[in-house]
Amino acid sequence: MSPLEENQALISFKETLAQKNFQNCSTQILSLPFFDDFANNSNAYYPNCAKWQDNHAFINDNMAFSPPSIGTATLDGLDPSGRPYDKTADPNSAFPADTLTSQIIDLNGKTAANNIILSYFYQAQGFADRPESGDSLFIEFLDSSSTWQRIKAYDGISNAVSQLDTPRFMQDFVILDDNKYFHDSFQFRFRNLAAICGNNDHWHIDHVYLDENRSDTTAPVYYSDICYTSVPMSALKKYTAIPWRHFKSSLWNDTLRMRTFNHSSQSGTLDRTYTIEDTSDLGNYLMNVATPSFNYLPSPNIRDSYDTILSGAFGAFNPIGPTQLLSRYSIDNPTAFQGNPLFVNSDTAYRYTTLDNYFAYDDGTPEMRALLQGIGTQLAVQFETTVDDTLRGIYFHLPHYINRNAEDDFINVKVWVNNLQNEVFSRDILRLRYVGGFGGMYYVELADFAGITAPIALAANTTFYVGWQQASTVPVPVGVDRSIDRDDVTYVKVGGNAWQNTDINCAVMIRPLLSLEENPLLIPTESYENSTKISLNIFPNPSAGIFNLSCDACNAENNYSLDIYNSLGQKIISESLKNQLDLNIYPAGIYFIQLKDDKKVIDRQRIIKF
Question: Residue 12: which pLDDT band, with cuts at 50, 70 and 90?
Fold first, then answer.
């Protein structure tokens, strides 16, 4: 039985379990054309409310493999808060999961003669979890009687396909030629069936385009768009994040790798630029390179690549506190064959590299998970200091993926210094915890069973390793980033065997935190009990000294407090949440304000006093 013919009564029954009302966008009425390539999305990792009604899909730059453009909408088994739709559901059964529903599109008065076509790209798996047969993707239209009609369906990947083969994006289209769709409340939507107990069974959607007077009747469907298909590499050679005190110029990434694609049936030449800026000093370019003009062949063609070693010098950069580096690819002066403003979003690609108080190799998106099979198996990830510092804790990402609570199982947290034979810390029989949001990191402070802290002083230029040992029969999953391969710094030890590099082609989502402060600032996390994002409103910012504060989502019953840090990471103020913050007695500069309740850090922002 094909997915299109699947038992509708069974699906309708399952929907009472999985299809909850997570709509967070007010209804809007649109006219043609409709286009979204999800590039540089304006609503963070939720769909753009100007085009979509619900927030189930996860908008991201890195889960899909070789996408048509930067930015894809990913459908999986997690709800909009990043947790399972039903953590008790059978992981081997497919249930209705995510929905991506367009805003209302007025097609009143249109007919088949208008040649209205919906085209889109779709991909199963990507860098993430493989949807199996039965884990389907559907395209549905809302007809004039307000009934959803299933138009297209795609089944998951057959077991006969090798696990080593990653399906490519496919382009498909639907011609609107039935009068029941030409009404003033037309909508279309994408839906998937998945294992709804976790981050499973991924489908990726890109370049969704609905318009009239389109003459294409077979794929590929052309349009005047040249896209960046990947974000810039990290500005740092080895890491995606480092403690700011550890920056040195030898860490600059001097490799430039641009990926673009021409979706047009025409050819032409465009100029491109690569820049790096410090976000605390925008406009001061640390790198500004104009790449050679590139002649694009008509589509379909191979993807256009430009790889080089940067010959220009990086600008002087001496951070005085936490910041982010903004890397940007830009297409300059678009010409006629690429000049349609409808497609302008993917003319620029961004990447942020964090300088804070932790090291990271991952980009923050957990496509998959690592499992250590067998009690006693160990995994370690290597890092290196550049200045004297103190290791105070380790972040782990604990992902949802099966209908077992991984918080019930145990690991031993480990630290090694200089080499993997010199274990200096072990916190045994520890349970990790799920953290709200996408890619949430759980912090484990280096402490003993009694809670007494055990920080580890590390000299400059010291190699150290952080990791864990499987301590229970059921393996504890830890998130991995499959879009970055760091097998060269990732090691595994099974039983009495020697340590050896892994071959998982991933970056494990484990991050050591280093700080000279006894109470360092932590990455803000979201609570599952309250998935509403709580944040401070601060104005004016910058200010000469007085900052007004408000918090619309704060619960009056909670005890909120503020910690203020200077650019050296020193705490200068600790007080309850008030309507104003007075920094008049402090010198001009960058400060960091941290909002906390009784349990956790809720928000962290940068403020500037001039």
Answer: very low
